[in-house]
Amino acid sequence: MAKLINQITLCVSGLFTTSLFITSLLVSVAYAGTATVKWQEPDKYTDIRSGDSGKTQFRKNVFNQLEKHLVKLTSELPEDFELQIKVTNLNLAGQVEYNFGMSRDIRIVKDFYWPMIEFEYQVLVNKQKVKIETVKLKDMAFMSRGGSNRLSHDTYYYEKRLLTDWFNKNIENMVPAWQEQQNAIMGK
């Protein structure tokens, strides 16, 4: 009798583990929103100067890091959500100044050189536009808020935080309302 109970327990346990695994696969597939970023006329941006590397390589690195960050943020959206961004201006935190002791340009980050980014964006759901807006983000108190970059090795920390705050407030918060609306339409 004890042997039969052990076999039943193992069977139920195996089914539970399998169902958890399948559920986690379904959840991960359901959340895979996408982001595309275009950089419009970067030569006209306020400040994307490099302190210590070539101009082209520095820009490529900045754009790549910020694009990866936006892709990561949108990956938490439902799979039928798409965020399209066209960046029209960028001003990185800090300012590039010549350092006589080091005999080269370096980026100095002080509280009066705040980050700023301007862009146009569209949110598409099932390829239909549901939101279009132009925004200008800036954080004039970027060094006064928690999570100092001095303690972080995250490149472009202040700019990413600016985008994350905007995303959480404007994009992520629209998902539940949209899902509610869809459920009402479908009669759920």
The 3D shape can be described as elongated
Mean pLDDT, as a whole number? 79
SS-derived structural category: alpha+beta
- Indicate the low-confidence ranges by residue numbers: 8-29
Largest sheet: 4 strands, mixed
The level-1 CATH class of the domain at 28-47 and 62-92 and 115-186: Alpha Beta
Number of strands: 6
CATH architecture heading of the domain at 28-47 and 62-92 and 115-186: 2-Layer Sandwich
Helix content bin: 40-55%
Rounded to an integer in angstroms, the radius of gyration calculated over CA atoms is 23 Å
Whole-Å distance between the termini? 47 Å
Please state how the strands of the largest beta sheet are arranged side by side.
1-2-5-6
Number of helices: 4
Q: What order do the helices and strands follow?
A: HEHEEEEEHH
CATH topology of the domain at 28-47 and 62-92 and 115-186: Double Stranded RNA Binding Domain
**Beta-sheet strand percentage?**
25-35%
Describe the structure in brief:
Helix content is 41%, strand content 26%.
Structure commentary:
41% of the residues lie in helices and 26% in strands. It has 188 residues and is of the alpha+beta class. It has a four-stranded mixed beta sheet with strand order 1-2-5-6, with helices on one face. The protein has a two-stranded antiparallel sheet with strand order 3-4. It is elongated and about 70 Å long. The relative contact order is 0.13. The model is unreliable at 8-29 (pLDDT under 50).
Give a quick set of tags describing it:
elongated; 4 helices; 188 residues; 4-stranded mixed beta sheet; two-stranded antiparallel ribbon; Double Stranded RNA Binding Domain; alpha+beta
